[in-house]
Amino acid sequence: MNLPMAPTVSAAPELSVKEIAGMQDEVRALAAERRAVILAHNYQVPEVQDVADYVGDSLGLSRRAAAADCETIVFCGVHFMAETASILCPEKTVLIPDLDAGCSLAASIDAEQLAAWRAQYPRGVVVMYVNTTAEVKALTDYCCTSANAVEVVRHIYATHGPDTEILFGPDMWLGAFVEKELGRRMHVWDGECHVHAGIRPSDIEATRAAHPGADFLIHPECGCSTSVMEYVAAGDVSAEGVHMFSTGGMLQYAEQAEREAVARTSDRRDAGRGANGSSSPARAQAVVATEIGMLYPLRMAAPDIEFIPANAEASCKYMKMITLPKLRDALREMKFEVRVPEEIAVRARVPIDRMVAIG
Ligand code: 13P
Ligand code: SF4
């Protein structure tokens, strides 16, 4: 199968360090003037992450949007995320700096397709990843993110009964991960994210060979996730070093790993070693299988850990459409507004609220 790969270069014009600093000041001043909160996904370019009020994963961003005390939210992420913010905060103005920032996964199912799928399984409970349009969410029973998909499905079996038929979508790799974790089969839509699906088992083979002691941080949307679970099940890879994480989970791992690295260094110092650097321990390594924007927050959170991309080409062109100049223009001109019509928002809020209540 030939999977399309997004270009690695951002569409942003090159800015000097001075220009970036000047524009960041402008953005902060405009945000204060507009009483705006800037939310940014972990895959955003560093200069946008640095100016945001909050950087996080899909679940964290939904929560922040719901709790934000402001008139305007500027969403530095992709369109479905801005829609989710609009669904949760209909009284706020939600802006996205580029309306073309879409998502190949969200585009893999539309409302008509979901309605037809539902009609095939009238007793089925529909669980959809948040990477879907508002119209799809309006036909969904429960939303989930990569951080809570297992919990959401477990909750459905516990409350609706163990034989409940579940229609899970649109990501087939995340669906396979949930099935494996819970040991049950669901009906799984065959959508995928072109960036994560492009991270193949061969990437894991190559990074394993090059970095034998490294931990693996794997986003469950990845095309390699099923094979890594198989390596673990077969005992080829130690389960201890393999973590299937949302981007938020990866960040928590980094924070913990950094604390441990700092503690190791101070223990060595107390033991009187390492002063001349001759016996300093090797830097811990972690291979990261997700979109490469994630490397920036990981490296900021854990400078003592070496983070290695599983596939350095795994860049989401949609996430990279959001640039600092476009963010500045969005605030200056109050564009581009994302507003979900109330009749859709009312229905789409139900599965999101259910998800947030579960965890
Ligand atoms: P999370 O941030 O929820 O892990 O999702 C990753 C993603 O691909 C968002 O588009
Ligand atoms: Fe969508 Fe990009 Fe995230 Fe893939 S990486 S799910 S295309 S936003």
Topology:
Layout: H1 17-34, E1 36-41, H2 46-49, E2 54-56, H3 58-67, E3 72-76, H4 79-88, E4 93-95, H5 111-120, E5 125-129, H6 134-137, E6 142-144, H7 149-160, E7 166-169, H8 172-182, E8 187-188, H9 194-197, H10 201-210, E9 215-218, H11 225-234, E10 242-244, H12 247-270, E11 285-289, H13 295-301, E12 306-309, H14 324-333, H15 342-358
Parallel strand pairs: 1-2, 1-3, 3-4, 5-6, 5-7, 7-8, 9-10, 9-11, 11-12
Helix pairs in contact: 1-14, 3-4, 4-15, 7-8, 12-13
Bound molecules: 1,3-dihydroxyacetonephosphate (13P) and iron/sulfur cluster.
How would you summarize this macromolecular structure in one to three sentences?
This protein is of the alpha/beta class. It is built from 15 helices and 12 strands. The two termini are 36 Å apart.
List keywords for this structure.
alpha/beta, Rossmann fold, four-stranded parallel β-sheet, 15 helices, 13% strand, disordered N terminus, binds 1,3-dihydroxyacetonephosphate, binds iron/sulfur cluster
Would you give an account of this structure?
Residues 1-11 have low confidence and may be disordered. Helix content is 45%, strand content 13%. By secondary structure, the protein is an alpha/beta fold. It has three domains: 17-102 and 318-340, 3-Layer(aba) Sandwich (Rossmann fold), CATH 3.40.50; 106-195, 3-Layer(aba) Sandwich (Rossmann fold), CATH 3.40.50.10800; 199-269 and 281-309, 3-Layer(aba) Sandwich (Rossmann fold), CATH 3.40.50.10800. Helix 6 links the parallel strand 5 (125-129) and strand 6 (142-144). It has 15 helices and twelve strands. The strands form three sheets. A four-stranded parallel beta sheet has the order 2-1-3-4, sandwiched between helices. It has a four-stranded parallel beta sheet with strand order 6-5-7-8. 1,3-dihydroxyacetonephosphate binds at residues 42, 57-59, 131, 145-147, 193, 221, 246-247.
